[in-house]
Amino acid sequence: MWAIAKKEFKQYFLSPIGYCYVGIFLLICSAYFYIGVFTYQTAKFSLIFSSILIILFLTFMVPILTMRTFAEERKNGTEVLLLTSPRSITSIVLGKFLAATFVVLISTFLTLIYYIILKFFGKPEFASSIIAIIGFSLLAIAYVSFGMFASSITENQVIAAIVSVGFFILTWLLPDVFSAFSDFSLIDAFGSSFLSGTISIANLVLLVSFTVMCLIFTIMVLQRRKLVK
Asked: How much is the pTM?
């Protein structure tokens, strides 16, 4: 598992994808940090994650980050070698998942730089800042898990990205149309508690269980394909 994670992680930074993800993310965060501190004169760290641009960033960039995880293997014909290797399907999925997760976490935890800067301008709340980072990390990881699942069901990377973007937009906007779906909205789970500096057990369980569910579905898809081959 760790060997796969290491290999996949290197691949992200041997191509522009990893650098683009981290760079664009920090660029957006820097813009909202500047607006919050110098325009609105606030030392609230969580303001960085409250931007709609950050949500749009996750919606479009995470699918780009994950679209190649399995779709590329199928397209290049290396999936057979992957599925017939001594490693278990679970370790393969978790290895690829950890690699993408590391990229996401690196960019998220780099935002602590803004917290350190805020210490010179005011007194940002440490607890609420950490909770916001944890919540955003869980949201991003949940997106990664679905992006991998989408990549596992097709050999076309573009289709995998489109499916992921469509799903994320649907789960984002659907609660506004049908209130019954509000309890299952990943965005609402993040914004209603973590962004306000509190941890809701229900929202925590939703984000974690969604991630686990998508990983299980990905393992099932690959396991079935292995049996067919």
From this structure: 0.91
